[in-house]
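INPUT
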Amino acid sequence: MIVEIRFLLFVSLLLGPELGRVASATPVEELADSSPTAVSILNTHCVRCHGPAQQLSGLRLDARGSVLDGGYSGPAIIPGDSDGSTLVQRLISDREGYRMPLGSPPLSGSQIDTIRSWTDQGAQWPEDAISPTEGDGSSPKDKDHWSFQPVVRPAIPPVRNRSWVRSPIDAFVLSRLETEGISPSREASREALFRRVNLDLTGLLPTPQEQKLFLLDNRSDAYEHLVNRLLASPHYGEKWARHWLDLARYADSDGYEKDLLRPHAWRWRQWVIDALNQDLPYDRFTLEQIAGDLLPDASQEQRVATGFLRSGLLNREAGVPRGQVRFEEVLDQTNTVATVWLGLTMGCAQCHDHKYDPTSQKQYYQFLAFFNEAQGREVDAPLPGEVGPYLKSLPRYREERRKLLENAQIFVSRLQERWEAMLVEADEHPGRHLDWDDILRGAILGELDRAMELLRMKPTDRSWRENDLLTRFFFRFPGPENAKDESLTERLKELGKKLGELDESFPDLSRASVVQAKPSQTHLALRGNYRSPGVVVRPATPDWLPPLGETGEPDRLGLARWLVRKDHPLTARVAVNRMWQELLGRGLVITSEDFGTQGERPSHPGLLDWLATEFMARGWSQKQLIRTIVISSTYRQSSRSRLQLEERDPENVLLARQNRLRLSAELIRDAALRVSGLLDTRIGGRSIRPAQPEWVSKLTYGKSAWQESQGRDRYRRGLYVLFKRSAPYPQMVNFDAPDSSTSVCRRERSNTVLQALNLLNDPVFMESARSLAIRILQEAPSSWEGRLDHAYRLCLGRLPSSRERERFRQFFTRQKEILEREPESVHQLTSGAVLEFQPLQVASWVAAGRAILNLDEFITRE
Amino acid sequence: MDWRHFQALQKRRDFLQSCASGIGIMALADLLAGDGLTAAPAVPANPLAPRPPHFAPKAKNLIFMFMEGGPSQYELFDEKPTLRRYHGKPLPASHTEGLEFAFIQPTASILASSFPFRSYGECGMRLSELIPHIGSCADDICLLRSMHTESFNHHPAQLSLFTGSIQLGRPSLGSWVLYGLGSESSNLPGFVVLTSGPRGTSGGSSNFASGFLPSHYQGTVFRQSGEPILYLGNPPGVSIPTQRAALDLITDLNRIRRDSTGDEEISSRISNYELAFRMQSAAPELTDLSQEPSSIREMYGLDSSDEEEKQFATNCLLARRMVERGVRFVLMMDAGWDDHTEINKKLPKRCRKVDRPTGALIKDLKQRGLLDETLIVFGGEFGRTPMVELRRPEEADSAGRDHQPSAYSLWMAGGGIKGGQVVGSTDDFGLRIQQDPIHVHDLQATLLHCLGMDHERLTYRYTGREFRLTDVAGKVVEKLLL
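OUTPUT
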């Protein structure tokens, strides 16, 4: 008893007068009743981490209700059953890191006994026990953070220099500049502005003819006409699709280990290009990608849109636990949607409550539950013109296939039946047939997404295509029994090959990777580990953002509708900030991926909110918003740095000038192919493979061959270059294309020696230089000066200065001297060229063209 | 840089310091217009410039010899006589609780090693007879028998080892090192990757990617023959004089542009073109092994009749030459140590291929006085099971072992490491660690420590959070250190 009295004194000292009063007001006799003492033990040792101030692992131990509700791992106690109560188990455990209280000495035996007997007696809570402090059960983290507050349309600030203001954007920028006593930059030259806006809206360098037309257009709104024309160009969709692909961590392969290709991935990319070109409003754009399948009477294209959720990494490595693969897939979907629409680093709450933002771990798994109630599927998604030829040839295809199987005189269906049965058995009894385990876990489960579902269906219940699909796998992995029969193995291989050829020779339908609803239960994963399931959670949005309730059901469609609520504080702000970033070089919130408490605050909060309200007011039209930005005086400024400015605002936060930006990896490719006349400007379609050294793909685990595209495909835009995650096309890596492992909101713009080697020596750029040379010679007047002018106009959109011209003259003299001594070089430089010109002349222009393609200015949007 | 250019820059700097007077860009442009612009480029703030470590380092360079796939500790590093007694029988039931493997069941029977161990060096380190040359360096080697990691699958485990996380997309060890210390070489990449083996590794480029660090810090793949670095060689028809003429033109035109735009980023581009030119001669010089004396060629096994040994030996010798030339981090990746089947046939062959060259590398570095400042790590992403994996049950020879992350072996030598010792031990079956568990995060913390860096201070801010190689864990293993 003395011990307990001392203990109470200690409690009152520790917890201050309020609790002290409660404890000391309790008659000493009543302490024999275990309940007040148990509560005070909890108060003393537990509530610091599991109370009103913080609820680690979602647990509060300061009221009976919350003790019974428990935390992320379930109820803390079961009244009447101390042995079965987690609380007791964790107090008595000797496992470091599990035993509570964490980081403190264990409770004494008598303290534990007190809690035990209190639990066994029903865990009554004394009515007069007052919690140390009243809490609202929420975490104290910053819910007042600026980005969680409603977007309110701000007043347009007054400015002195009103003539500079073309749009409210300029008023926001200028008012800040005037406060700082800085004047904006003058407008960029018409040539520079023309090149800039072409690159920003379509990603393509304009031709000299287009430039000439623009320069001759005397209308006062010639620039606005130009902007309209560019926004209507189908290349607009290509340019802006690339940004969206970065956000969607798009790639053409799985990523991990074998890194299998995803032959249907492009079909979703096609959807993005089309959606952007049609200016599908951002709210619809959102709904269709997150929940297109759940829309009433969902169309094929709306289902295809959900491919957004299917673009993440996938580990098909043999022997990987399927539960882990699935868990990682859903984590990735959750984190990606949180980044792209909310600008939140929610992924931090996978293992514990977010350290800085108000997202609790439970809220994270509630958000994740939306995506857990879905599964992937591959579906037909024919493009216009595909269905007719397919249907027409189908009977003949089936017939030829049947004949092929019959003529082979192998009882495929019987062998396959046995094969299927053995795989099902291997799945049900792992370890019984090691050799079948190997095929099942080593190949089939990894590569065939619905393997067990299909294998357990009767052949007659499957569609013929599902049966064909299994047959294809049977031919690839015929199993240990058949493998023993060498001649059978040989014949199966041969037959498999013939079937493959047959498939190739008939028209097929494009397919797409999509998601569809699938009921399933979601558990919170304790410490972020899927093997430690905690409490069951239902889909819900974080309670510190607007409620989900009014917008719909707690499913993906409800979530998507919630994201595009007009009173959502994040969605519009996050989206307009990214568009601003692409056009000005940095976001108003520079951490465009993080609008949480750890992100940067906006440089121009009023402008950000004005843009967000404008975006929604104009029906979420991305084209309208882009147009609003690019016609502003702010956008049109020169990008030249000014000494005074460099001192005051080295990062150009105040926007007293435009930014000079190195082109993205894809646009650098496009630019070189464009000026050389090689670029194939067809829109959409499958991914292509430009030439690359053979050893690049050989370094991968799969050693898969890189089959170079043929004909015009070789010259398609960078957007279409196949992105194999384990061995991306080197030029993409060298110029900072993202690795597609996670969503990327802003790319690096590095400046490296490998970039120099790439532009100097990559055969694609050499081929471009050669074609550029021929083009210059063919198109330009026969004077050397005229040719140099033409080269400059084509590549840089301007004429050379006298110094530049002089420098080129020296170069030609020097180059000619060198080449006169190297006839073999002349031959090599001009190879494949039409030689209506002197070889030496062609070779010199090839060398000059190569230099121009390597200029900083060529790969920069100024 | 000639003095006029230097002066111009100096004046520009003065302007920047006193530009309250409002002198505009035009003044600078005028000033620079008088510049002959023929000088070597100014070297701007270089992200790869050497940076001081957090404290005095024990090692300057690191050679990571990654044996990809999970080399078996039972055949090589961790002798287990008990396995012989249990050979063909299942584990005692008391040992199987909670076990899970990628392919086999916990009830699979035990497989004893077919290869004897013996004592090596003055320290008497017990190592397999399959690796006598490595064994002959035992007094320089610190053997870790208590490594552990999380994942029992290749790619996640390789990511753990090299990036500290099982998720793709984090920066690799080499990138962190380069980010922390910069490069000592002015004409070679600071982080080089050498590959060997019959195929690529499971981790592929993710084992040397820079993740969210700027791409300057990614590893550069070096090949033994042909073009050592991608796009290093001039295209057909571009001779050295033509290349030089082109670079001079590019540099001059870039300078003109820099002066008219005032964009200092162009200076970085100019110096990168110069570096590219230097690299074009430095890299082939590096890979030209013809000047190596025959004693060295023989020591490494460079002229071996076994093509695979030759390939590995060449990488070892290249690693030494790189270290000599200031390459900070050499990652050697030898693929294919994933012995699920025929371990008794395949493993000895693979050991023959790496043993002699690896021993030679240690001795060669030592005789040149480079071992003290070069840290060597040799090992895989996890170990293997004491139980057999039998994919073809009717063929006893086909026996192999499955993946085991809970306990495995790896060794280190050189810069800052106390050789001639064994750290850590495992139970009789090698399944569980008994003493001194060393997690991959601990290994990473220790490697960074040897290079003079505190793993908790080497951080990079990304998506609102400071990231580090060791995530939220990692302890320097003092026992390993001199």
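end of record. Residues 2-25 of chain A form the longest helix (24 residues).
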